[in-house]
């Protein structure tokens, strides 16, 4: 009987360990996503500031032609 009790406890321990691991991975992925979003927002703000600083004297597309 004691062997069965130990097996049941091991399985519960494994389930808890797997659940804890999934929770840690989920939290790490969420933190990674938030960090990447913050980096993207910072890059976009930096690009917008650089565009504003350079003025509107460059062409709108890559052909090199002005819209006028």
In short:
This protein is mainly α and 68 residues long. 78% of the residues lie in helices and 0% in strands. Residues 1-68 are annotated as: Disordered.
Explain what this protein looks like in three dimensions.
The chain has 68 residues and is an all-alpha fold. The protein contains 1 helix and no strands. It has one domain. The longest helix has 53 residues, at 2-54. The mean pLDDT is 81.
Question: Key terms for this structure?
Answer:
68 residues; mainly alpha; rod-shaped
- Anisotropy-based shape: rod-shaped
Number of strands: 0
Task: List SSEs in N-to-C order.
Answer: H
Q: What percentage of the residues does DSSP assign to strands (E)? A: under 5%
Q: Describe the biggest sheet?
A: none
Parts with pLDDT < 50 across at least 5 consecutive residues: none
How is the topology of this model organized?
Elements: H1 2-54
Biased composition (Basic and acidic residues): 1-26, 55-68
Region (Disordered): 1-68
